[in-house]
Design goal:
With 462 residues, the chain is of the alpha/beta class. The chain is built from 12 helices and 22 strands. Strands 1, 2, 3, 4, 5, 6 and 17 form a 7-stranded mixed β-sheet that branches. A 5-stranded parallel β-sheet has the order 8-15-9-10-11. Strands 18-19-22-21-20 form a 5-stranded antiparallel β-sheet, sandwiched between helices. β10, α7 and β11 form a beta-alpha-beta unit. The longest helix has 25 residues. It is globular.
Length: 462
């Protein structure tokens, strides 16, 4: 490890989200003098305004389905009512517990926690609320922030940040946007008994996911009762007179009345206004920090990881990037991150699990060779008694020349849990023959991944 007494710290991290905390902790464990600045709660978006509270909300909303399904198994379920304030209180208690854990982890690693908004002064100096600190290396891990529309009445809308602190949940909710955040909250609100409309400007939501999975989820959401509308956007939001609602003017010429408008139209890197450009750090078109394979920016002493890079905006990726930075700087082990075959879960209802290439992208990866497509669609065993019409869809994409499995996708109960194990196989370069040679675990949905024998009709590369 190389350190210098010329500076107050060997590493100064801006942002105590998952990536920044991991980089700071590991660097401290390697003997580096480390500080981390944070203007909000420890844990960043994931812990406070993202993955963790959202998953708790998914659990809460799923009980309405469980209550309904229980009748088919002989249960009598009586009167039931959901308390949104009680859910918020329980969520807040858990988040506070996690905040405390993050503080202890940093403290135990010898990391100084500096509360306040940090700004880069020069390649080796950071200012936090008027106090200056010098560092051999500055790590920017400031994450991303929801994008909001530039339309009339935008001030009436909220983002996913505010939803975690709403005092009440109104009857009619409209979500604008078709990414995973919008899809997940559509399921959450619907499961909590609200009337949900989701608007997306494109032909089909969840851009970048496999087309069959996207279409299947859209069908299931509509079947469940979500008002899902494609090829439409909002031109303006008008506050209605005499009540708490809003009237949306839509791009198809129609209007739509609602009590709450939530935008989930993407997130932007939080890189502006913190002195980066003045310090010589080059930013991309959307504000993403441009870095090399070792996460160094155009100013070598300033590095960046996580959502502020605009690459793969997933918590485990930011954590892996933080580990790479710590190993490279302070463990004499230059480390990069492999972004291929990263598993992803969408906690929609039903959920999605996916790893590897979509059918569209698999053709390009296979050098325009043939890609065999294996698909299994079935009614989950549970629903043979529950009476629910929901279907599960599972899909494998295989390069015909090499027999390597290029992608695995699933829509259905426990999909994210199942795909994590499949991701290990794909990361190891598993072939379809090896999938076929694996004995299935019966009875389970997961066994379908090792029992698909007949490919779908030939689909030429496009």
């Amino acid at each position: 490890m190389t350190t210098s007494t010329r500076y107050d710290y060997d590493l100064f991290t801006i942002g105590a989200g998952s990536g920044g905390v991991r980089a700071a902790r590991m660097s401290g464990s390697f003997g580096a003098r480390v500080a981390v600045a944070e203007s909000s709660d420890l844990g960043g978006t994931c812990v406070n305004l993202g993955c963790v509270p959202k998953k708790l909300f998914v659990y809460a909303s799923s009980f309405s389905r469980e209550f309904a399904d229980a009748r088919g198994f002989g249960w009598t379920v009586g009167e039931r009512e959901h308390s949104w304030p009680q859910l918020l209180a329980a969520k807040n208690q858990e988040i506070e517990r996690l905040n405390g854990i993050y503080a202890r982890l940093l403290h135990n690693a010898g990391v100084d926690i500096i509360r306040g908004r940090a700004r880069v002064v020069d390649p080796h100096t950071v200012e936090v609320d008027g106090q200056r600190f010098t560092a051999a290396h500055i790590l920017v891990a400031t994450g991303s922030w929801p994008r909001m529309p530039g339309i009339h009445g935008a001030e009436h809308a909220i983002s996913s940040n505010e939803i975690f602190h709403l005092e009440s949940l109104p009857r009619r909710i409209t979500i604008v946007g078709g990414g995973y955040i919008g899809v997940e909250f559509a399921g959450i609100f619907h499961g909590l008994g609200r009337q949900v409309t989701q608007l997306y400007r494109g032909r089909m939501f969840l851009r970048g996911f496999d087309d069959d999975i996207r279409a299947a989820l859209a069908g299931e959401m509509r079947r469940a009762g979500v008002d899902l509308r494609m090829n439409v956007n909002v031109n303006a939001i008008h506050k209605r007179d005499g009540d708490a609602g809003y009237r949306l003017a839509l791009t198809d010429g129609s209007t739509h009345d609602t009590d709450l408008v939530m935008y989930a139209t993407g997130r932007a890197p939080r890189s502006r206004g913190i002195g980066l450009e003045e310090a010589g750090v080059k930013l991309g078109e959307h504000g993403e920090i441009l870095v090399d394979e070792h996460f160094r920016s155009s100013t070598p002493s300033i590095l960046a990881i996580g959502d502020v890079l605009g690459r793969v905006t997933l918590t485990p990726v930011a954590i892996r990037e933080g580990m790479a930075v710590a190993n490279t700087l302070f463990n004499n082990a230059p480390t990069t991150v492999d972004y291929e075959y990263i598993p992803t879960g969408v906690f929609s209802q039903p959920p999605i699990g996916t790893v590897g290439y979509s059918e569209h992208d698999a053709h390009a990866h296979a050098a325009r060779g043939r890609v065999d497509v294996y698909v299994s669609e079935f009614r989950p065993m549970k629903h043979t008694l529950s009476g629910r019409e929901e279907r599960t869809l599972m899909k494998l994409l295989v390069c015909r020349d090499s027999d390597r499995v290029l992608g695995a996708h699933m829509l259905g109960p426990d999909a994210p849990e199942i795909i994590q194990g499949v991701a290990i196989a794909l990361k190891c370069g598993a072939t379809k023959a090896q999938f076929d040679a694996t004995i299935g675990l019966h009875p389970s949905a997961a066994e379908e991944f090792v029992t698909m024998r007949q490919p779908r009709g030939d689909v030429p590369p496009t």
